[in-house]
Amino acid sequence: MDFTFTEEQQAAVEAARAVFADVAPDGVPSPALTPGAVADDFDRTLWAKLAGSDLLGLVLAEEHGGAGLDAIALCLVLREAGRVLARVPLLEHCAAAMAVQAHGSPELAAALLPAAGRGTLVLTAAAHGRSGHDPAELAVTARLDGGEWILEGTQTAVPWAQNADWIAVPAHTGEGEAVLAFVPRTAEGLALAEQVSTSGERLAELALDGVRVERTHLIDNPEAWERLRLLLATGTCALALGLGEAVLGMTSQYTGKREQFGFPVATFQAVAVQAADRYIDLRAMEVTLWQAAWRLDAATGGLGGPLPSPGDVAVAKIWASEGVRRVVQTAQHLHGGFGADTDYPLHRYHAWAKQLELQLGPAAAHEEALGDLLAAHPLA
């Protein structure tokens, strides 16, 4: 079997590397020295470059002005974004667009997707529920009133909601059915309360008080929210992998130059063993990521496995959460006090790593989900 990436996927990586080449991880104030968010908006200049390189329409069909690529291609680009701590809602934007394309009405697709591919319209997604620990679809209720849906409830930690144009909001109908509503940020009855992530970026608590949504702007197929949730989790793993690889590279460079007793500290056995362990973590993060991304794409083609695709996503997120935490902790240790210097970017990577570790659920939550899947689908 051939596990190499396709020419189109490799071309997406090359385009992403060119766009991210000039991005500085410390282009905004340090989150350690900023009481609020590090900036009021995401990196609009970078966003425009992504749009100009056709990377915002990467996963959209040609009929919507996109390249028609898959979740693997998106994760390849997100991996490059993670290396430089790119301050853009690339994951949420593309994942929400894929949900519209796969399950949305023709009217919703026509209203959102062409502009989303050009980057003139920004999408984000609410995926953390009321507290970040309960299922997001249970945080909001949706009831049909004539030709419109009415949304009531609260979602927390919505990334860059203040700067997005539309927000994908999961909800439930009270009959055990998950739906996915697309709500304009300016909708009447929608209120945003300021929140700040561990990485210093803007989040928002989203309060919906009788928000009315057109029938064509709500997707009542339960698979839409489930796939969006899985794609967001898998994309988070891709960001964590890119971040971890960048941190290990920084650690390698530092320990190769830092000398003690006349020798580079990288030549000391204790240092080499710790770095090797973190390299193993990254390779485990990588293989589980591609397994999860492939299963998401394969599931749409009817290809199955020993467990449903959420099992592969859970395994990937367990490794991403645990692995990225160990990578940045070892990097801080091997850098000594230099790693905590706010003039050196490692502390930023540490803050982002903690955010990604907990985003869409920590390792323990996905271990529980994996256990439930194993109980329901015993392996022969």
Structure, explained:
Helix 4 (90-103) runs antiparallel to helix 5 (106-118), helix 6 (222-257) packs antiparallel against helix 9 and helix 8 (309-335) runs antiparallel to helix 10 (363-376). This protein is an alpha+beta fold and 380 residues long. The strands form 3 sheets. A 4-stranded mixed beta sheet has the order 1-4-5-8, covered by helices on one side. The protein has a 4-stranded antiparallel beta sheet with strand order 2-3-7-6, with no helix packed on it. A two-stranded antiparallel ribbon has the order 9-10. The protein has helices at residues 7-20, 44-52, 71-83, 90-103, 106-118, 222-257, 269-300, 309-335, 346-358, 363-376; strands at residues 123-125, 140-145, 148-159, 166-172, 178-184, 190-196, 202-214, 218-219, 259-260, 263-264. The two termini are 24 Å apart. It has 10 helices and 10 strands.
SSE layout:
Elements: H1 7-20, H2 44-52, H3 71-83, H4 90-103, H5 106-118, E1 123-125, E2 140-145, E3 148-159, E4 166-172, E5 178-184, E6 190-196, E7 202-214, E8 218-219, H6 222-257, E9 259-260, E10 263-264, H7 269-300, H8 309-335, H9 346-358, H10 363-376
Parallel strand pairs: 1-4
Antiparallel strand pairs: 2-3, 3-7, 4-5, 5-8, 6-7, 9-10
Helix pairs in contact: 1-3, 3-6, 4-5, 4-6, 6-7, 6-8, 6-9, 7-8, 8-9, 8-10
Strand content: 15-25%
Please give the largest β-sheet.
4 strands, mixed
Give the integer mean of the pLDDT values: 94
The SSE order reads HHHHHEEEEEEEEHEEHHHH
Biggest sheet: strands side by side, in what order?
1-4-5-8
State the share of residues found in helices, binned by percent. 40-55%
Number of distinct helices: 10
**In terms of quaternary structure, what is this?**
single chain
Global morphology:
globular
Overall structural class, as computed from helix and strand content, comes to alpha+beta
Radius of gyration, taken over Cα atoms and rounded to an integer in Å:
21 Å
Number of strands: 10
CA(first)-CA(last) distance: 24 Å
* Poorly predicted sequence stretches spanning 5 or more consecutive residues: none
